[in-house]
Design brief:
single chain, protein serine/threonine kinase activity, two-stranded antiparallel sheet, mainly alpha, 2 domains, non-specific serine/threonine protein kinase, Transferase(Phosphotransferase), domain 1, EC 2.7.11.1, serine/threonine-protein kinase
């Protein structure tokens, strides 16, 4: 549901703004690198290809394009030798938003060469069921020219970011929460049992877990 995608996306932008404030370009933002706590908090993971911009650098120029092909921007797909690093993360965040909002990708290809060819043109369409202002946000984040591509502040001030879509359906449990019948089929119970403290509520007989949020206050 869009209201759920909105919640995840706003947390992604919060995390991305923090990374950029620390002069870190992630370079591999994608759904697979976004983790959720049991409380529904989003965490950005896998900084294996991240690059730290030198403290004395004049700007955020990067020279190496790394990361998952489907989430790479046109400047990398077209083989440019240097490009604005932070706008790489804006593009991949736009592809991520497109994916979690529609279930598909804006650019596809039978192989990496065809995929990069399609990304390089920057031509894509947004499904008809996606309406304004989300459509405008996607087009702004996926502009071919990194200079005109939305910045984090452009995103923060955008109408779709500022107003959460109405809740017209139930939230999809990702991952399944403790009360969900599918929860026992995941690795989560094992992780909780081995890595979280727990205690029983004598009055109700329920087991309550002390989560990371509780430990950090």
């Amino acid at each position: 549901p869009l209201f759920q995608a909105h919640g995840y996306f706003t947390q992604l932008i919060d995390g991305l703004e923090y990374l950029h404030g620390m002069r870190i370009v992630h370079k591999d933002i994608k759904p697979g690198n976004l983790l959720l706590t049991l409380g529904g908090d989003l965490k950005i993971s896998d900084l294996g290809v991240a690059e730290t911009i030198d403290l004395f650098a004049e700007d955020d120029t990067c020279h190496n394009g790394q990361g998952s092909p489907a989430f790479q921007p046109p400047e990398i797909a077209n083989g440019l030798e240097h490009f604005p690093g932070y706008k790489v993360d804006i593009w991949s965040s736009g592809v991520t938003l497109y994916n979690i909002a529609t279930g598909v990708y804006p650019f596809e290809g039978d192989n990496i060469y065809r995929l990069f060819e399609n990304i390089g043109t920057g031509s894509f369409t947004v499904p008809e069921e996606i309406e304004e202002p989300l459509k405008d946000l996607l087009y702004g984040m996926l502009r071919t020219n990194p200079i005109s591509r939305f910045s984090i502040q452009d995103i923060r001030h955008h109408a779709w970011f500022l107003q959460r879509p109405p809740r017209i359906s139930e939230e999809v449990p990702i991952p399944p929460l403790r009360g969900d019948e599918l929860h026992s089929m995941t690795v989560l119970p094992y992780l909780v049992e081995h890595y979280y403290e727990c205690h029983s509520d004598a009055s109700s007989g329920d087991v309550q877990f002390i989560t990371e949020r509780d430990l950090n206050g």
